[in-house]
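haha ok so turns out i had the wrong file open the whole time. this is the CORRECT one, sorry everyone. sequence first:
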Amino acid sequence: MVQLRSMIVPADNSGAKRLMIVGVPGRIGKVATLGDVVLCVVKGADPAGVVADHEKVRVLIVRTRKEVGRADGTYVRFDDNAGVVIDKQGLPRGTRVLGPVAREVKEVGYNRIASLAREVV
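then structure:
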């Protein structure tokens, strides 16, 4: 679970170094969890990357430190809060997805991101 102004790590090679959450569209509260799309601002970017510094981007949350309960009674949690930069069609702007990705991402409908990930937990 992440909230407004949380700093998250990019889980792709789009060129962003840190992402700050500035909006959670479509939600009543100000928190987002695995599989949610949030609006972020890029804080620091690689000059040769796809995204620019201070650019507003849409980000899919793929890992959270706060545990998330599943329907079968198990819980999943990760070591960091991470997201993948996506475009308007929901496709990743980078070419690789780094680190594990939660199964909720695939269940929500982002199959392309789940297929690029090395491990779906």
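Residues 103-108 form the longest helix (6 residues).
again sry for the mixup
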